[in-house]
Every structure is written in C-alpha cells, then in structure tokens.
Amino acid sequence: MTATDRSVELVRIAAEAAADKLADDILAYDVSDQLVITDAFLLCSATNDRQVRAIVDEIEERLRVEADVKPVRREGEREGRWVLLDFIDIVVHVQHEEDRTFYALERLWKDCPAIALPDSVTQVAAQRARPAAPEDAR
Q1: Nearest-CA neighbor of 29 among 51, 14, 17?
Q2: pLDDT tens digits along 1-52
Q3: More exposed terminus of the chain, fewer Cβ within 10 Å: N or C?
Q4: Burial of residue 63, with CB atoms counted within 10 A of its CB: 0-12 exposed, 13-18 middle, 19 or more buried
Q5: Three-state SS at 113
Q6: Largest Cα–Cα distance of the chain, in whole Å?
Q7: pTM, rounded to two decimals
Q8: How far apart are CA 71 and CA 51, in angstroms?
Q9: Which CA distances in Å does 134 have to 29, 101, 124?
C-alpha cells in the first residue's frame, strides 16, 4: 500500500506552509506500509520555540483553508519543543532542532519511501543552506 493522493496533497500543503515560515530539514515519508494509523509523516525543525509555534500555526491555517482539514489531536504545544499535529491522513512533527537531532525520527523511518516535496520547498531549503558569498576584497 502507498500513501493516498489525498495524503500526498496534504503533505505538499503542510511542507509549503512550513517552508514559508523558514522551517529547516523538511522531510516526508510514506509510512503507510508500516503503520495503519496514518499514511505519511512530515518532519521539520526550527531554531527556537517561537518559530516552532509559528510553523505549527501556519501549517494548521493552510491545511484548514486549502484542504478543509483540522488536526484531530495536538500534542506538545505548551512546551513548544516538539509539536505533533495528527490530521489522520498525515502526522506532522515540528521539532526544536535540538530535539530533532536527539530523537532523529528520520533514522527510525529511513526504510520508508520518501515523499517528493515541491520545488518551492526544496529551493527554499537549498537557498538557506547555501553559504553567503564573500564580499569583494579591495
């Protein structure tokens, strides 16, 4: 079994929302063969608690407006270090970068197929990862 078209569309919307709020290391996995509770995981991280909350808010808003879905469950919002949003078809993990490194969810799901993210998401990530060009020395 593979993730449904609906799940892939929700991943796309959520990934674009996360990228718009400058989330780091945005990855998506098709976990439908491993789990019966959901089709896909979206993972992303942020440098601080405030940014984690901003990413979560943007993902929720965009999925509500563009796909008419709301999370059935939210966990970790109070601490702002690792927020889990369960939309049934997809589960979104927004983690503080320290927690992302410590828990390394991508290591747990590395055998699952990756879901391709839109160019708009991967281009933002590539631009942010590219070091700034040195200024001309005169």
Answers
A1: 14
A2: 688 999 999 999 999 999 999 999 999 999 999 988 999 999 999 999 999 9
A3: C
A4: buried
A5: coil
A6: 62
A7: 0.88
A8: 19
A9: 37, 29, 21
87 phi/psi in degrees, rounded to 5 = -105, 20
Write out the two tokens for 132.
């700034």
DSSP-assigned letter for residue 47: S
Write the CA distances from 20 to 14, 72, 77, 94, integer angstroms.
10, 23, 20, 14
Distance CA 104, CA 123 (A): 23
Do residues 53 and 103 lie in contact, with contact meaning Cβ atoms separated by under 8 Å?
no
Distances (CA, A) of 137 to 25, 104, 131, 133, 134: 33, 41, 17, 12, 8
